[in-house]
Amino acid sequence: MGNKQKKEKHKNKNIENNDKNFHKGKKISGKNYNIKKENEKTRKMELKEERELKYLRQVLAEYEFTFQEILQLLEWSQKKRKMYKQLLNAWEESGDIYLKRNGRYTLPEKEGFVKGEVSISNGNFGFLDINGEASVFIPGAYLNTAMNGDTVLVRILKESSDGKKREGEVYKVVKRNRDVIVGVFEHNLSFGFVRPRNSPKDIYIPKKLIKGAKTGDLVAVKVEFWGDEERKPEGEIVSVLGSPKDTEALISSLLLNEGIEEKFPNEVLRELDKIDEDISEELKNRKDLRHLDIITIDGSDAKDLDDAVYVEKTEDGYKLFVSIADVSYYVRENTELDTEALKRGNSIYLVDRVIPMLPRKLSNNLCSLNPNEDKLTFTVEMDLDKKGKVVRNDFYKSVIKSKYRMTYENVNTILEKNEESEEYRNLYDKYRKIDEMLKNMLELSKIIRNNKKRRGSIDFELPEIKVVLDENKAVKDIVLRSRGEAERIIEDFMVIANETVAEKLFWEEIPAIYRVHEDPDKAKVQALNETLIKFGYSLKGLEEMHPGKFQNIIERTTGLPEGYLIHKLILRAMQRARYANKNLGHFGLASKYYLHFTSPIRRYSDLIVHRMLGRSIEKFMNEKEKAKYGANFEAIASSISRTERVADKLEEDSVKIKLIEYMQDKIGQVYIARLSGMNKNKIFMELENHIEVVYNVTTARDNFIYDEENFKIVDKRNNESYTMGSTMKVSIVSASYAKMEIEVIPYVEEKVKIDETEEE
Questions:
Q1: Could you give the CA distance from residue 184 to residue 192 in angstroms, rounded to a whole number?
Q2: What is the DSSP string of 62-94?
Q3: What are the domain boundaries of the chain?
Q4: Pick among 1.10.10, 3.30.530, 1.25.10, 1.20.1280: CATH of 3-108
Q5: Among candidates 100, 99, 135, 90, which has minimal Cα distance to 114?
Q6: Which residues pair with 743 in a beta bridge?
Q7: From the first residue on, what is the mean pLDDT of each consecutive set of 10 residues in the chain (760 residues)?
Q8: Total Cβ atoms within 10 A of residue 363
Q9: What 3-state class would DSSP assign to 397?
Q10: Cβ of 587: how many Cβ atoms within 10 Å?
Q11: Does 2.40.50.140 match the CATH number of domain 667-746?
Q12: Residue among 137, 144, 139 nearest 124 (CA)
């Protein structure tokens, strides 16, 4: 087939305009008119190049082309060969196309490459997670110059087999995540170097660029040269953060390492100051729900209250109101506030601080559904029959006045109805007016929950640590987060509201950002099943994936010694939930339609959904707008999926840092530990105080060995074995900020032989 025919075959394909710039430029007038025209010209050129690249990739999926053939295919001028060659080079550098040794262009994926964002753990190895595909393991020696969070092109070296992950090596770094890296500085006679935690390579610092840093300092270094096969990365010290043992500095370094600023830019704050707080005129345009006994139920320390609920029992079932803070009223499209919210993607809840998505004036004040204040909301009103099926729904902008700011703890106490408890009697007297509604809430929640269970929704009961700090930010207490009936009520109501909004937008063909959870990878499920068989369980009919099969195993193992491990193994076999501009369903919830609507104060996805729901209510969105938003949402979904992953890791690491600090003075102490997980390198255990510790099998200094085949460790001296759920005595040997782990070894009591002699 000649080039003309190939071109003819593809020229009529519908090439979507994948506009990654969601935000329009502001109107510019007067002397800046030329700047505006130039910007528009540049943007048009960028859009043209995006369309051409998308078209080229579609064609390269079937064919290979030389540079000259691409010129003809894309109708590029021969007079501008040099310019277009540079453009192709740029596309090759970005990993979008690949130039073979024979001078022909193809797709990287056809040559055994995959592109994605690399996650590096303690500089020893990395992973590449790709939506809908098995993740790729990258050994430390094959990371080359890649740093944590970089976008890389990886060459696949080994495909998945026997439950093992694919392996690959970094072929090249396509895009650097950032150029400022945090690490520990070490001084030499004439130079220095920085050891980043999430990188296998040191960063060389010339003497003149050390800037007063001393050995052992935690520093931020700007990388000027990323290194190659012969030279290490090079950079200069830009900030000395403090001691690597100062937990506040360490947590701040986590943020700096991800390029996250705690403070909002000045232009955002200036825009914030101009927001009109008077909503009296807006109230006239809203459905008034202030007469209802609407309440909020949140944790006692929550400041950003974005959901409120009301339930009443009817003759045919129940009426449920879920009212969510209308953030879209204050944060308009294409504003500085909107741009910053998208950049942040979500609020980050660290152990010692909150990095909000929106300034606190909005998150804790104007938008927060504080009690006894008129607040603007979006309401989903649902009529449910006695079986919990939504038989009617309505969506509208509203105004509410929350009657009570309830906490999970208080609601749980009221629902338990321990009349002998003084705490219950006091709470009952205080909230007597809504006691009947709380009872109805519980009834409806249980009905919704049973429906989810029947359809196969997966419900993990994995314990989660909550670290309580005192006024000096030292660890005061370590507790397990409770999940009582109050927590479940709100969870059930939010899920059904999210499903109802998702279904509406889907069938109306309104663009949206969905919360998707795809079917598990078959290789992972097969490996999981092989492990389950060792414990006496199995998944039947693996050719047909259904969440109910996993939930059945979870229910059968809950409360058993091996239950915790099995639940974690099932969780690891699942795909990670993410955001997408297409409805792909939610496997874990066994839901056909799902998105996030209920937390717009702390999640950008929800803010987008609110805007789209508003357009749906207005019944005005033409096909051109639908196409534009749909294309924009693809890039936004990818961005906020990434920020969510970053937030989760930061939250986890901040807790680890505080737990390591707490255990610093407990080296040598003996604890009872329960075995909770195993791999060929480490045994994971949980202490009595719920802190996770590790026993490094590969560096063991004792007589214990790991039996990988049978998931147990064995004491060689007496052949005593320990399996999942078993308890044993362990001794704390280290609490390392560098490794981000607390290490233990099995404790062996020395038996001292005492010679008994007769008394004279």
A1: 11
A2: T--B-HHHHHHHTT--GGGHHHHHHHHHHHHHT
A3: 3-108, 112-175, 180-244, 267-518+575-655, 667-746
A4: 1.10.10
A5: 135
A6: 694, 734
A7: 47 37 40 57 78 90 91 89 91 90 91 86 74 76 82 86 75 86 87 80 88 89 84 89 89 88 94 94 95 95 94 96 97 95 96 95 96 97 96 97 96 90 92 95 97 91 84 88 91 97 96 95 85 87 87 89 83 91 95 97 97 90 87 91 92 94 93 83 85 82 70 77 83 90 83 42
A8: 22
A9: strand
A10: 23
A11: yes
A12: 139
Amino acid in the structure at residue 668: G
What is the dotted CATH code of the domain comprising 180-244? 2.40.50.700
Q: Which tokens hold the place of 370?
A: 């504080």
Q: How far is CA 27 from CA 39, 340, 419, in A?
A: 12, 19, 65
CATH number of 112-175: 2.40.50.140
Q: For 280-317, b where at least 16 C-beta lie within 10 A, e where not — what string?
A: eeeeeebeebeebebbbbbeeeeebbbbbbbbeeeeeb
* Distance from C-alpha of 547 to C-alpha of 496, rounded to nearest angstrom: 18
Task: Tell me the whole-structure pTM to 2 decimals.
Answer: 0.83
Phi, psi of 548 (to 5 degrees): -60, -30
**180-244 and 667-746: identical CATH topology:** yes
Q: Which residues are within 8 A (CB) of 326 and not within 5 positions of it... i.e. 6 or more apart?
A: 367, 376, 377, 378, 397, 600, 610
Q: Is 191 exposed, middle or buried (0-12, 13-18, 19+ CB in 10 A)?
A: middle
For 657-747, strand residue ranges (E) read 670-678, 682-687, 692-696, 704-707, 712-715, 720-723, 727-736, 741-746
Which tokens in the block code for residue 177? 């995540």
Instruction: Please report the beta strands in 304-373, taking only residues with DSSP state E, as ranges in sequence order.
Output: 307-313, 317-325, 348-349, 354-355
